[in-house]
Specification:
The structure is a homodimer. The first copy, chain A, is an alpha+beta fold. The first copy, chain A, is 36% helix and 20% strand. Chain A has 17 helices and 18 strands. The first copy, chain A, has a seven-stranded antiparallel sheet, sandwiched between helices. The first copy, chain A, has a five-stranded antiparallel sheet with strand order 5-6-10-8-9. In chain A, strand 5 and strand 6 form a beta hairpin. Chain A is globular and about 70 Å long. The two termini of chain A are 37 Å apart. The interface between A and B is large, with 96 and 97 residues.
């Protein structure tokens, strides 16, 4: 078998142990196809190091032998951020065997992990020590921390805890010259020159390979209070979000808007009444949480709901009376992406606008779709307490999903992005740029910004070794 | 008067309006001497632009005429970060006339300001809109936002709200080539390539001149509960901080340790009993705050105090029964720096350690002082819930303050830094590097880190126009 390897790959094999180099076509597809099968990449091989030292060796050897590298965690990118490109002679560096939780500090509230640690495993390690790792998103069972950091992942609890960037205390990164930037300190405050780790957060692997991560933890939440809100017609989402922040003293950890259409898709898939309805303005899943039993969370939630009703924003609300009922509310929210698939798939637009512009965006973007693509069904939902809306167009019956995706992305998507940008928003809230949104970056990016971005890329990775084709 | 100007300065005068260029010696000292008079800088002139456009013109003209620039806000640096150096031919760019709060969004919880806005003015604008700008520090009446961002300021409420970096949503920066990096968006989520604004936060003006800032706000706090805790002997600070986070559901906004010696200095200065005492383990000023009246804050505080006493960490506690009593507790804390001055001054070491190592640090650093400088009085206090300790050595009676400062900084300070670094800590928690700690950066900085820092400086500011002599 090994004799079939090109000689330049055999040097990589020699670096790594059994299973460290994958080259057979059947095994490669797991790494070369993105999760939505929108892109089929190509690579001569996947490297699976077991240590930071091995990553350093890989980087040095790749630089010498003319290979590019594509770092990969759980391969859950929505934008082709971890897909090796045909014609670029890129090797994938999968961190999946560097998946150790290194340490948890339950007094200082920190966790240190290998970058290949699956997010859910890091969450579980925190929980086992009485702590909370609040980063939480749909892919948490398979995405890996290095990818979360490299894409500055958002998710379900940004409202209270912030994006991944806000959680990162330390990083360890192998630079394009093979040297190791090691800043795995657990310090909350440390002003000793440029905060270099910030550079790698959200850089999508284009400046180095993240091998280790220190994240902030919080005290474990020991109680929750959860409600399903039916919004009144034209209920102003920004005012509702602001009222909730104020009235709950920021104990709200989740504020998820669910449109009536998204809810309908879930009901269609299940073929059953969900037992929970949207109001004319949609529905909101609201959850408060606290780390101490002495906080009267249910009373706080009830008082907040009363204030929302008094203000005329909410028509009715259901309080989860049991963990089973709470789980059911969450399941509905979490099932939306699957329900979209079941309905034939969707084109996902990951919009951000200033929190105070969410309702304006929904109204104006809805009008754009009604005018330019009449009859197209929408499914929108998301973490709108942060101004992040997943604004998705359903693939019409009989249309090919990939064809329709191209049509939307080349057409109406731009009209929708234009609305977001006019409101001070963005065409990418949490998914990032990757390979699918590079043209958008060029199209909507301010030239000074793009120039500075290119300057940094050239300065840190002058030969373009790292994830060429993504973002830059 | 103008005929006395060197011709290269007159071009700057022509750019700016009345009062835009300051050159007379008497007026210059306000800009050339740092606030502790540890450094006397020199400059041919101070430029006081009124707009971002004028800053761009200044940068272009300086580049053409061979001047360096030193951006300055309130000139409150503890490390000579904004002091023009003799021999460097540096002009000061004071942002003091760019001090407008541009807008407050009370629904989206953001404020946009000119970089020369005084922190207290930004706080007041937020408050007038029912919001809280939680950045709060001793110098808030004179420091300016651009300086806060450039130094990534910390302060009194980092425990709950984070450092300045965690509050920044948008920035506007004039780059060394005079172009404008404008990212004043109020977005909470925006993943569109490297988050370039991060580069300028904490860069101490070495990469560009910050002219505008967007900060996150919070709902205004409408109630507080405040207590003064007397700690038991050898009370473990990290465990106390962790218990407080957990039991208050992170509603604690302030956790300030005050050593018995610091308290003694305040009593000495006042010449009166303070009415509040430290326990054998020191004292803690603890404050909870909430944005809604329905949160039973006093009950939560009482329950937390009970848990602290049950654990044996706290011997006694006084609950502030009135705003007057609360103010008195705060005044004691805030008076410590003045009381140190009154006692003859102090050498301030701005230490950070992992939160869980605070007690270890205090014990080991105290032993170092007892051994190497017996008889030296200490005053330590600070935001230890974040691992930040202001560990100050009092100037002995009869010693010259500046001589003693040099002696400490060249001698025992290194032994104390060594303890911090051995515990995974840092020699600069919030003050930054500036001109006084450059040698420390070289001494304790990892070579890969320093090399990357220099690479970025070269890439963004290749001619070294910006704040040469500070940090890099």
């Amino acid at each position: 078998m090994s004799s079939a390897l090109p000689p330049d790959l055999s040097a990589f094999r020699d670096l790594l142990d059994e299973g460290g180099l994958v080259t057979d076509a059947a095994s490669l597809t797991r790494y070369t196809h993105d999760q939505r099968s929108l892109m089929r990449g190509e690579t001569p091989g996947v490297l699976r190091p077991r240590s930071t030292g091995e990553v350093q060796e890989i980087v040095r050897l790749a630089a010498r032998s003319g290979f590019g590298l594509v770092p990969q965690g759980g391969n859950t990118s929505y934008v082709g951020g971890a897909t090796p490109e045909p014609g670029r002679r890129q090797l994938v560096v999968s961190l999946e065997r560097m998946n150790r939780v290194r340490s948890v500090d339950a007094t200082g509230f920190t966790v240190a992990c290998d970058a290949g640690t699956i997010l859910a495993d890091a969450q579980a390690a925190a929980e086992a020590s009485g702590c909370l790792l609040p980063l939480s998103l749909g892919a948490e069972g398979s995405c890996r921390l290095g990818g979360n950091v490299g894409t500055n992942a958002g998710g379900l609890q940004v409202l209270r805890y912030g994006m991944t960037r806000d959680l990162v205390l330390g990083l360890e990164v192998v630079l394009p010259d093979g040297s190791l930037f090691s800043d795995m300190r657990t310090l909350r405050k440390n002003n000793i020159g440029y905060d270099l780790k910030q550079l790698f957060i959200g850089a999508e692997g284009t400046l180095g390979i993240i091998t280790g991560v220190v994240l902030k933890l919080w005290p474990a939440q020991t109680q929750r209070a959860t409600a399903w809100l039916q919004l009144a017609a034209r209920a102003p989402i920004p005012d509702i979000a602001a009222l909730i922040r104020r009235e709950t003293a920021d104990l709200a950890s989740t504020f998820e808007l669910i449109s009536a259409s998204s809810l309908g898709l879930v009901a269609d898939m299940r073929g059953a009444d969900l037992g929970l309805a949207a109001g004319p303005g949609g529905a909101v899943l609201l959850e408060l949480s606290a780390s101490a039993q002495r906080i009267p969370l249910t009373e706080i939630l009830l008082g907040t709901l009363e204030a929302l009703m008094e203000a005329g924003h909410v028509e009715d609300a259901v309080l989860a009376q049991s963990e089973r009922q709470r789980r059911e509310m969450w399941t509905i929210r979490e099932t939306i992406p699957e329900a979209e698939k079941h309905a034939g798939g969707s084109v996902k637009l990951d919009i951000a606008v200033p929190t105070s512009a969410v309702s304006d965006f929904l109204e104006r973007a809805g009008a754009v779709v009604a005018e330019q693509a009449p009859g197209t069904r929408l499914s929108f939902y998301g973490h709108v307490g942060d101004g992040n809306i997943h604004f998705n167009l359903l693939v019409p019956g009989g249309r090919d999903r990939i064809d329709f995706t191209r049509e939307v992305e080349e057409g109406i998507a731009h009209a929708i992005y234009a609305v977001a940008i006019d409101l001070g928003g963005s065409f990418s809230a949490e998914y990032g740029i990757g390979r699918f949104k590079r043209d958008l970056l060029g199209r909507y990016g301010d030239p000074v910004r793009l120039d500075l971005l290119a300057t940094l890329k050239r300065a840190v990775d002058p030969t373009g070794l790292m994830n060429a084709g993504a973002m830059t």
